[in-house]
Design a protein that fits this description.
246 residues; alpha+beta; Alpha-Beta Plaits; Structural Genomics Hypothetical 15.5 Kd Protein In mrcA-pckA Intergenic Region, Chain A; Nucleotide-bd_a/b_plait_sf; S4 domain protein
Length: 246
């Protein structure tokens, strides 16, 4: 959960960027924001002709806030880098890339989405960070890499599966219990322990209601999206359609 102080600091920073854009009559970009940060600040900085959210592609998880003066639509300083890799003798994954990034001691706001596909690593970043990554981000888990700048914006197609679960209601504890295949009481303790996130925000209220499209993240279990209630069983319980990212 984003602390109030951190949120206030972020809002003040974005207001400052917005004022600079208006004063200088030029596009000004924030760093890459996490999904929870975006959800928090969106009511204060809604998408408009002068405010744009962009992370390289529409479904990007991390996005920048881009403040635009009139007539400057389409501006972005987002760049995608690609490094070809040979995983024949050494496999690398998301955690390896994140670990290598953190070892560089860069701010998380300096890079956007990244992922590993067969034969390549993709990394979204800012124009002003390209030379830094090209020079210093040269190794992942002892595997040497070399970055090349792409002219296009590839899309990370996240794999998922759709399945059904039987739940007592659309309360959060009922959903968590069904997803974890445990009791409501254990699910409630999991929630109260800060192990459950609703739409990327830590929730400690077991009675919180889940609505269509709600994202439920459970530490140690996975990330799910509640699609809709599709039918009712003969015993009066509900069948929920869920999507799980894998």
């Amino acid at each position: 959960m984003m602390k109030t102080k951190d949120f206030d600091t972020l809002v003040a920073h974005l207001h400052d960027l917005q004022q600079k854009s208006e004063l200088w009559n030029t596009p000004v970009c924030s760093g890459f924001l996490e999904e929870a940060e975006q959800m928090k600040i969106f009511p204060l900085f809604p998408e408009s002709d002068g405010v744009h959210y962009f992370g390289g592609y529409e479904e990007a998880m991390k996005k920048k806030v881009i403040f635009l003066p009139m007539g400057e639509g389409g501006f972005s300083d987002v760049v995608c880098l690609k490094a070809k890799i040979n995983q024949k003798f050494r496999k690398i994954g998301h955690k390896d890339v994140l670990g290598a990034l953190m070892a560089l001691q860069v701010e998380r706001s300096s890079f956007g989405d990244f992922w590993v596909e067969e034969g390549a690593v993709y990394l979204y970043t800012s124009e002003d960070m390209v030379s830094f990554f090209e020079r210093y981000f040269t190794q992942v888990n002892q595997l040497r890499i070399h970055w090349e700048r792409l002219e296009n914006y590839p899309v990370y197609k996240r794999a998922f599966q759709v399945f059904e679960v039987v739940v007592a209601s659309n309360r959060l504890d009922a959903m968590v219990a069904a997803l974890m295949k445990t009791s409501r009481e254990k699910a409630k303790r999991q929630i109260q322990a800060g192990q459950v996130f609703l739409n990327h925000e830590m929730i400690e209220e077991a009675s919180k209601l889940c609505h269509n499209g709600t994202t439920i993240s459970i530490r140690g279990c996975g990330r799910f999206q509640f699609m809709e209630m599709i039918r009712q069983t003969k015993s009066g319980r509900l069948v929920a359609s869920m999507k799980q990212y894998i």
